Amino acid sequence: MHRITLNAIENNYQKRLEWDVLTSSPAVRAQNISYSFDGLSVLHSVNLELRWGAVSVIAGPNGAGKSTLIEILAGVRTPQAGTVERVEDVALVVQRVSTPDALPLTVQDVVTMGTWGGPGMTASERRRRVAEALDRVHLAQLAGSPFNSLSGGQRQRALLAQGIARQARIFLLDEPAAGLDADSRARTRAMLAEEARRGAAVACVSHDDESIAAADCVITLSGGRVLS
Ligand SMILES: Nc1ncnc2c1ncn2[C@@H]1O[C@H](COP(=O)(O)OP(=O)(O)OP(=O)(O)O)[C@@H](O)[C@H]1O
């Protein structure tokens, strides 16, 4: 019993040390990012850092390059110039996601996919993580519903839960407030703030004034350049 307790303390201490080392650098650092679509230059030498434990909002007018930038930060689009350093894998929550009709997936299936490919875990550990993630985004009651029957905001929350289930610590979201009513926007804001409070780095593209006002850090893009 004594040995087990000591092991648990040593493991926690080790995890704490690893976390301290991990968080001594920014979660994501982008340097001199430039990007063009077929000769149309949309990002010009963008530099930014995303902090641990903070919600950063990427704001700016339509066409400023926000979605392009978040995709580059997530690693799903490669810039023609510049570098992106990520301390860990990211969970990317995109807009307007659906699953193929030929592959009817429930909300629980989609969240469970977040646990695939990671370190091996028992079936009960997988179930526990999925249930906790669904709880954290308030979707537990819809776990058995078809994913495609969810509203846009609920789908984004399911993708957020997918990241939570795989214990992602960097969350990047493209317009999580788009198309949501005021209550849903507030709920999403609270969830993202909660993930940041747990130590995650959260960044979202947003046009929502309340999200911008509540953010720990606002990065304003205009014409493909960072203004602040
Ligand atoms: N796949 C694409 N092919 C060509 N041009 C594109 C493509 N995607 C975006 N663009 C162009 O790149 C520029 C930046 O687009 P982006 O979607 O990144 O802006 P945004 O700031 O996210 O805009 P919004 O607020 O309207 O979503 C725009 O001029 C857009 O027309």
Please tell me about this protein's structure.
The protein is of the alpha/beta class and 228 residues long. The chain has a single domain, classed as Rossmann fold. It is built from seven helices and nine strands, in the order H-E-E-E-H-E-E-H-H-H-E-H-E-H-E-E. It has a six-stranded mixed β-sheet, with helices on both faces. It has a three-stranded antiparallel β-sheet with strand order 2-1-4, with helices on one face. It is globular and about 55 Å long. The N and C termini lie far apart (55 Å). The mean pLDDT is 87. The site of adenosine-5'-triphosphate has 11 residues, from strand 2 and helix 2.
Bound molecules: adenosine-5'-triphosphate
Give the strand tally: 9
Number of helices: 7
Give the N-to-C terminal Cα separation: 55 Å
Summary keywords:
228 residues, alpha/beta, Rossmann fold, six-stranded mixed beta sheet, three-stranded antiparallel beta sheet, 7 helices, 9 strands, binds adenosine-5'-triphosphate, ABC transporter ATP-binding protein, ATP-binding, ATP hydrolysis activity
Task: Give the topology.
Elements: H1 2-22, E1 28-37, E2 40-50, E3 54-59, H2 66-74, E4 81-86, E5 91-93, H3 107-113, H4 123-136, H5 152-165, E6 170-174, H6 182-197, E7 201-205, H7 209-214, E8 217-222, E9 225-226
Parallel strand pairs: 3-7, 3-8, 5-6, 6-7
Antiparallel strand pairs: 1-2, 1-4, 8-9
This protein binds adenosine-5'-triphosphate.
Adenosine-5'-triphosphate (ATP) binds at residues 37, 40, 42, 60, 62-68.
InterPro entries: AAA+_ATPase, ABC_transporter-like_ATP-bd, ABC_transporter-like_CS, Metal_Ion_Import_ABC, P-loop_NTPase
GO molecular function, one term: ATP binding
Family: Belongs to the ABC transporter superfamily.
